[in-house]
């Protein structure tokens, strides 16, 4: 029974090896085994290795070829096309002790049919094993984060290592190597996911803080600009106001100067002093009558009850002004009224009567106010 089971296992192993060999021959040989028919037509992108009497003779090129029957034998048929070989999944340990499972695809081409036939028993299998060992060696030099960042450089390193070991002795050139899939342990995946989420939250917080900072800066700049504009507006307003006031003062001064000039010219004319004296007396009486109209606290002279003395004082001022020497103009002033018989114009006489009437009225009003005041004042 044991011998039967052993034979079954041996048979299964032989069948598995034959299947693998058949798949490798199918990948390597496009036309399969050929027979010596004397006249041979070699297809394009194929190389037929010929042995004569068991020894290498030559490599047939594409096209028409002739062989000697019995003596010449077609030993190997090599395909010169690019071949893609799947690299089985394998485990590798990174520099930071993380176990990965990686598989890939290897692209190669036969550049020397003689070396590919006699340099190695199974070129594809040898290149596959070399690719796996090289990949494990290269991954062991870098960390987990570098595996994803330096994926392209990792492929280039594997290709260079394979070419250094396979081109010269085996006649096979590796064109490129591509990593298909990288499988990480579950816990490592969870940790990386948490790291990614934390990084995204950090970026979100940073972006939000930068937005708040930019907003506050913009608000501060706006307030600063508003203050500057407001101060400039106040400055311009004050400048304009000062300029207007200066112009108004100048205009008032010019008007006052013109008025004084006219008054001076009028006083210098005939009976000008009489008119000026009358005007001064009227202003005195009017100012005294307005003392109690603007406030409840006033200062009165000691002789408030003596109405005649106050009127006499006003008339004394008038008389002093009238008794000043008069400067008469030799030429009459156009527009002034004519004088009466005694040299005083009729208009001034009328104004004196009005002044006397106003004085009497002011005297009556002052007497009435004085009687209504408290006795203790």
From TrEMBL:
PROSITE patterns: ATP_GRASP. GO terms for biological process: mitochondrion organization. Signal peptide: none annotated. GO terms for molecular function: ATP binding; metal ion binding. CDD domains: SPFH_paraslipin. Residues 77-268 form the ATP-grasp domain. Belongs to the band 7/mec-2 family. This is Stomatin-like protein 2, mitochondrial. It comes from Acanthaster planci.
């Amino acid at each position: 029974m044991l011998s039967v089971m052993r034979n079954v296992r041996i048979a299964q192993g032989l069948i598995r090896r034959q299947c693998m060999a058949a798949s490798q021959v199918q990948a390597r040989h496009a036309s399969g085994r050929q027979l010596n028919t004397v006249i041979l037509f070699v297809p394009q992108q194929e190389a037929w290795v010929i042995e004569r009497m068991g020894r290498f003779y030559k490599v047939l090129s594409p096209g028409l070829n002739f062989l000697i029957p019995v003596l010449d034998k077609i030993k190997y048929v090599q395909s010169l096309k690019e071949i893609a070989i799947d690299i089985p999944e394998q485990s590798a340990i990174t520099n930071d002790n993380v176990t990965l499972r990686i598989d890939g695809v290897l692209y190669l081409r036969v550049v020397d049919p003689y070396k590919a036939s006699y340099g190695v028993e199974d070129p594809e299998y040898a290149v596959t094993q070399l690719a796996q060992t090289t990949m494990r060696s290269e991954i062991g030099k870098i960390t987990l984060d570098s595996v994803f960042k330096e994926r392209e450089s990792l492929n280039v390193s594997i290709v260079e290592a394979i070419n250094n070991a396979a081109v010269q002795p085996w006649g096979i050139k590796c064109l490129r190597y591509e990593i298909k899939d990288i499988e990480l342990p579950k816990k490592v995946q969870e940790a990386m996911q948490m790291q990614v989420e934390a990084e995204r939250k950090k970026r979100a917080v940073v972006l939000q803080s930068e937005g708040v900072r930019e907003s506050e800066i913009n608000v501060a700049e706006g307030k600063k600009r508003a203050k500057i504009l407001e101060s400039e507006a106040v400055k311009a307003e004050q400048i304009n106001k000062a300029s207007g006031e200066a112009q108004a003062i100048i205009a008032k001064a010019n008007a006052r100067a013109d008025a004084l000039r006219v008054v001076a010219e009028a006083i210098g004319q005939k009976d000008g002093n009489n008119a000026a004296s009358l005007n001064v007396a009227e202003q005195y009486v009017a100012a005294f009558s307005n003392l109690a109209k603007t406030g409840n606290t006033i200062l009165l002279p000691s002789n408030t009850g003596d109405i005649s003395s106050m009127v006499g004082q006003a008339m004394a001022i008038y008389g002093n002004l009238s008794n000043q020497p008069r400067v008469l103009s030799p030429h009459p002033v156009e527009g002034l009224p004519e004088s009466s018989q005694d040299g005083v114009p009729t208009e001034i006489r009328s104004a004196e009567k009005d002044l006397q009437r106003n004085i009497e009225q002011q005297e009556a009003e002052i007497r009435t106010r004085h009687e209504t005041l408290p006795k203790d004042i």
